[in-house]
Every structure is written in C-alpha cells, then in structure tokens.
Amino acid sequence: MDWDKLRVFHAVAEAGSFTHAGETLHLSQSAVSRQISSLEDSLEVQLFHRHARGLILTEQGEQLFRTAHEIFAKLAMAEARINETRDRPQGPLRITTTVAFGSVWLTSRIKEFIELYPDIEVSIVLTEGELDLSMREADVAIRLQPPTQAGLVQRRLMTMRSHVYAAPDYLQKHGTPMETEDLDIHRLVIYGEVAHQPVAGLNWLLSAGEPEGHKRQAVLRVNNVYGIFRAVQSGLGIGALPEYMGHESEDLVEILPELRGPSFDTYFVYPEELRHSKRIAVFRDFLLQKVADGET
C-alpha cells in the first residue's frame, strides 16, 4: 500500500472533504481526488460515498481509517519521542581519563552534571592507558596529549601547570624551603618508571636549580600521579603536582611559588561518528564551563 496515498486518505477521512484535506496537505482538490481514486482502484473497493454535502466513509473505508489512524497516532508519538530525545539528552556516556585527573578533578564535579542531565547514564573508566574510542571502548576521553588515532575529534580543554606542594605536617617537621637549593636537603616524591610517564618532564623537581647533569635523590617513586598526590598529602615529602590538585586539597601548601614546572594541554576527544551526539555536546560544554569558571 502506497504510504503517500494512505496519508492523503487519512487526511480526507478526518477533514470530510477533498478541499479541506487539500488545504491541510497543501495540495489541490483535484490532486487529492486523484490520490483517493488511485487508492480505491488499487484496493478494488470504494472508500467514500460522495455526496453534495461532503464525503462519508464506506464500511471498508471505516476499517481502513481505524487502522490508518492508529498507525499515524503511533508515528506521531514516535516523532515526539525522537524530538524529546534530541532536546533532552539521554543514553549511556562512558568517559575515560587518567587515574589522577579522574579521581581528583572529574569525580568531584560529575555530581552536578548528573543532576543537570539525569537521563544520561554516566560511567567513568580511569586508566593510564588509552582506550580505543574508535572501537567504542569509551565514548569520550580527557587526555593529556593530542590523540594519535585517526577519526577522532579533539577540543583543547585546559592547560595544566605544575607547582610544588607539601603537607603542613611535613613543613612543620622539616621546615619550609625558601629557595630552590633548599630542596637538596628535603624528601622528594617523584614519578617512577620514567620511560612510561604520561607526559614528559614529570620529574623536573629532581633537577630544578641544579647544575647540568646533577639530580637530587627521591625518598619515594610512584608510577601514578595520584599516588604522588596521596603520598605528599600524608606528609611523606615534597612533590610536583598539577595545580588542580592543590586547588582541590585543603591539606596541601604550595611552596616556592616562583618555581614552575612544564605545562601541557589537555584535550576532550571523541569519535567523529559522535560529532552530533547531544549527550557528548552537553558534557563537552559542561567541562568547558567549569574551566571558564576557573575550576582548574
């Protein structure tokens, strides 16, 4: 059965005349009449009794109208749900990022996002490796360097800067370094496994202010920035950490404020095929707003 003809039939049955149906469908009266006649010919039944005062459905016409009306009502409901989905984001959103950034920065803000968009099903995967977004191991990633995979869209999110921090307990016990050279006699917590650092230069504190080729010794090496953060919090020693960690923790004190380590950009990344996804867009905008508000 031709859907166009069925649509015209439904409009005529509701309007009760070719003229009124034509106005609704933006068709001429003769075009509407031809569509109905063609439908009647294909079904080999008469659908309307034609009277001077209008059209009346035949018994077969009544049967077809009831079915057509149910179909078009369901289509209208489906269209409304599609529009609702487009206007109100919903569905799964799988986010991946590093253990440190996810544990300290992202998870403390995700509550607000979930409350704003309760129909989005959020899950966070924290890993030092890169999940394959093209294989849908995750929908979006917050990465510490530009993506190397093809077919990914990237948006610079923020610039991370490194500062020097210690816990009040440590400073009370060991004193506060006033100059870079003072670090020589302090306990340093650094990143382990230099060859596998997520970004280059994490251990800049070992050589800051030192003659070329000389490095300080560390009291502890941890192959995870979050681990360094927790060790410094505990009062074990001094560490170089991203500034967002200092902002998030009330029990860290920035020392040697003139001393700065390397900075690096972070990126919001997602597959090209999700470019028009509403849930991706609202999450991206949420993160950008947090960064614009100075929450880094």
Overview in brief:
The protein is of the alpha/beta class. It has helices spanning 3-15, 18-25, 29-43, 59-87, 99-106, 110-116, 168-174, 225-233, 243-248, 278-292; strands at residues 48-51, 54-57, 91-97, 120-126, 140-143, 152-160, 162-166, 188-191, 220-222, 238-242, 253-255, 264-271.
Description:
- With 296 residues, this protein is of the alpha/beta class.
- The chain has 3 domains: 3-87, Orthogonal Bundle (Arc Repressor Mutant, subunit A), CATH 1.10.10; 91-158 and 265-292, D-Maltodextrin-Binding Protein, domain 2 (3-Layer(aba) Sandwich), CATH 3.40.190.10; 162-262, 3-Layer(aba) Sandwich (D-Maltodextrin-Binding Protein, domain 2), CATH 3.40.190.
- It is 40% helix and 21% strand.
- The chain has 10 helices and 12 strands.
- It has helices spanning 3-15, 18-25, 29-43, 59-87, 99-106, 110-116, 168-174, 225-233, 243-248, 278-292; strands at 48-51, 54-57, 91-97, 120-126, 140-143, 152-160, 162-166, 188-191, 220-222, 238-242, 253-255, 264-271.
- Helix 2 (18-25) crosses helix 3 and helix 5 (99-106) crosses helix 8.
